[in-house]
Specification:
This protein is of the alpha/beta class. It has one domain: Hypothetical Protein Mth938, Chain: A, CATH 3.40.1230. Helices cover 22% and strands 32% of the residues. It is built from 3 helices and 8 strands. A hairpin with a 2-residue loop joins strand 1 and strand 2. The chain starts with a strand and ends with a strand. 31% of the residues are buried.
């Protein structure tokens, strides 16, 4: 599912606008997506991703990149065979859309604001 547009605090996916953080999984868009600690990504925040592991998880850390992705989270993903790709959300959206043309199973976790 490609992203049509992204700007600070707002993302459009398949023509629908979301103003809360989103998870894009094989079964669709999940929003709002909440984390235990707002600006830190814990493995527990990715239960839906870990339950049905994609090959690649694109992680958007916010417009300014303020969401931290600790090593323990990256390790939990790699241990499940998931390749994490972490970037500010603007670049993460570009990467996600680029990857959509590949045959790999792709998921995304996108923080929309700071």
């Amino acid at each position: 599912m490609a992203v049509d547009d992204y700007a600070f605090g707002r993302i459009t996916i398949a023509g629908r606008v979301y103003t809360k953080d989103v998870l894009l999984l094989s079964d669709g868009v999940h929003s709002p997506w909440w984390r235990k600690e707002g600006h830190s990504l814990d493995p527990g925040d990715l239960e839906g991703v870990l339950a049905d592991p994609p090959e690649v998880l694109v992680i958007g850390t916010g417009y300014y990149g303020n969401m931290d992705v600790p090593e323990k989270t990256l390790k939990a993903l790699r241990d499940k065979g998931i390749e994490p790709r972490v970037a500010r959300t603007t670049q993460a959206v570009e990467e996600l859309n680029r990857l959509m043309g590949d045959s790999a199973r792709i998921a995304a976790a996108l923080h929309l604001t700071c």
